[in-house]
């Protein structure tokens, strides 16, 4: 499946628009990561625990979005976007969405 964040795919023709597809996941912070992040804030640098958490959340949201597109018979998703939002203290949602299409 082809995923792009543009409205078209260079060299390919969109034959049919299947509709909006989405995938999301809600993740909570982990106490161990919070402690490590607090210490890292004192000296600076990347918060690797949170980077890994968001990377995994993004992967899962994309997989869910792709599964929905495949159910519709699509072979590509255009105009892919991501958004995040706080659900509750210590938990956030990562939401991926785009337009499922069939291409040549």
Characterization of this structure:
There is one protein chain. By secondary structure, the protein is an alpha+beta fold. It has helices at 31-43, 48-71; strands at 2-3, 14-28, 76-88, 91-103. A four-stranded mixed sheet has the order 1-3-4-2. The relative contact order is 0.33.
Question: TL;DR of this structure?
Answer:
By secondary structure, this protein is of the alpha+beta class. 36% of the residues lie in helices and 41% in strands. The chain has helices spanning 31-43, 48-71; strands at residues 2-3, 14-28, 76-88, 91-103.
Q: Categorize the overall geometry.
A: elongated
Number of domains: 1
Give me the CATH superfamily. Hypothetical protein apc22750. Chain B
CATH class division: Alpha Beta
Order of helices and strands: EEHHEE
> Per DSSP, what share of the residues sits in E-state strands of 2 or more residues?
35-45%
CA radius of gyration: 17 Å
Largest sheet: 4 strands, mixed
**Strand order of the main beta sheet, please?**
1-3-4-2
Secondary-structure map with pairings?
Layout: E1 2-3, E2 14-28, H1 31-43, H2 48-71, E3 76-88, E4 91-103
Parallel strand pairs: 1-3
Antiparallel strand pairs: 2-4, 3-4
What brief labels describe this structure?
104 residues; alpha+beta; 2 helices; four-stranded mixed beta sheet; Translation Initiation Factor IF3; elongated
């Amino acid at each position: 499946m082809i995923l792009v964040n543009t409205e078209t795919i260079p060299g390919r023709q969109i034959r049919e628009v299947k509709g909006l597809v989405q995938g999301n996941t809600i993740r909570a912070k982990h106490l161990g990561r919070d402690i490590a992040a607090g210490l890292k804030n004192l000296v600076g640098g990347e918060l690797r625990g949170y980077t890994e958490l968001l990377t995994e959340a993004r992967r899962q949201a994309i997989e869910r979005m792709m599964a929905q597109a495949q159910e519709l018979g699509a072979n590509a998703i255009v105009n892919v976007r991501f958004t995040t939002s706080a659900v509750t203290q210590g938990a956030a949602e990562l939401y991926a969405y785009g337009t499922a299409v069939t291409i040549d």
